[in-house]
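[Meeting: bench + compute handoff]

Bench side (C.D.) handed over the final construct sequence. Compute side (W.E.) agreed to return the predicted structure before the next meeting so the bench team could plan truncations. Sequence as handed over:
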Amino acid sequence: MKSRLRFPLTALGLLGFLSNCATTVTEKEKPSVTSQPMAAPVATGATRPDSTGAAATATDARVATPAAEPAAATAATDLPAEMAGAPATAAPNTPTASVASAERAKEKKMTAADYRMMLESADSRLKTSPRDPAALLQRAKAKSYLKQYKEAIPDYTAAIKYQRNNPDAYYNRGVNRLMMKQYKAAATDFSGALKYRPDDKESFFGRGVAKMQMYQYKPAVTDFTRAIQLDSAYADAWEYRGISYSSFDKLSEARRDLERAAKLNPEAEKSLKRYVGNDGHEPIKAAPVAKPGTGYHPRPGYKKPATTPAAKAPVQ
């Protein structure tokens, strides 16, 4: 059974971010589509509204995340190699998580012409200051928005080289790597962003998306839970956590989360009906299906194979 629903990357902001996102399948099934956490440079029609809201209080977080698994501390091995020997604190003038989120939302609304101007401006600055990390990051982001993902990587890496404690550089490179299907590297970059900005809900969301693509549904639940604890009105996190739960047969939890997502964003009603059948009252009983294809779908569907696949494809 395959669904073709809209994707949230209302976006993973970054460059649109992160609300469009991941393939949902069983723990033993290979994802059939690519993550799509960045919004396209030019709007092509109605887009899903950003799922932001006031940060949850400690009480809200407890109520909002029943049966949630505790989040484990990020291990040193989960951090980008460039962070070795990096300062322990974020770069000076690093924006707060809320400010960074607002900036991402603003950038998402820009046009292709705006991104080209952004690119030209960065090029001009780099002619006189080739090691300017801000200009390198600006040029990398412009390339990402223009879908020049491969070309953007060297600029992100250079920006990090000259400013290893900038969470925005890690976050944006993580989203760019999601677009390139480099899920393990993307998850590592989001961990880098969280080291310097541990209250960034979109970095948790992005890392959860990357983990979903690597069949790590339970760890993905943990990251979506952290995003929800930071913002109890984060509809995309509720929705993707619900889909993750459905991938390892926690159907009551899946139904609860998808119902909450639908209340916050009516568009999530489609996922509720897709992943929890009969208008959300009973789980879908999937029939045997063929091996999933590899084409892109804005919202991946949940497929439960009749037999266990021989092996997973290697993760990039």
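W.E. noted at the follow-up: The chain is about 50% helix and 0% strand. C.D. will use this when planning the next construct.
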